[in-house]
């Protein structure tokens, strides 16, 4: 864990940080929104790359099924670790598993309205 991650965890543990009122799933989604696709300048959650999110709040376990915009993406081998690191930075997360899947293939239809608006598609 680097110094930035340590500071982020320490800040999240402070009273009034929202960790006691926000559910773990909401905090995980917030963390996923800090990870940006390497080719399209949008976060992976609003881009629709996250296909499944299972959060066990009691155990602090998070399982993510996700894809990339293209199977030949040059970061396919390293990107799951990037996502894992972001989710591990969330207070209350003890275990993270990221599974990269290719079926169904990603399409623009999976993007949120906010992502479409940001790209000028609405």
TrEMBL record:
It comes from the Bacteria. Residues 25-99 form the MIP18 family-like domain. InterPro entries: Fe-S_Maturation_MIP18 (IPR052339), FSCA_dom_sf (IPR034904), MIP18-like (IPR002744), SUF_FeS_clus_asmbl-assoc (IPR014291). NCBIfam families: SUF_assoc. This is MIP18 family-like domain-containing protein. It comes from Paraburkholderia ultramafica.
């Amino acid at each position: 864990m680097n110094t930035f991650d340590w500071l982020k965890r320490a800040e999240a543990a402070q009273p009034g940080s929202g960790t006691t009122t926000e559910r773990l799933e909401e905090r995980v989604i917030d963390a996923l929104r800090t990870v940006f696709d390497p080719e399209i300048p949008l976060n992976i959650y609003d881009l629709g790359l996250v296909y499944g999110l299972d959060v066990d709040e009691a155990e602090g376990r998070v399982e993510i099924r996700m894809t990339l915009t293209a199977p030949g993406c040059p970061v396919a081998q390293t990107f799951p670790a990037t996502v894992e690191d972001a989710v591990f930075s969330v207070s209350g997360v003890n275990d993270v598993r990221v599974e990269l899947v290719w079926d169904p293939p990603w399409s623009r239809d999976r993007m949120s309205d906010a992502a479409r608006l940001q790209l000028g598609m609405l």
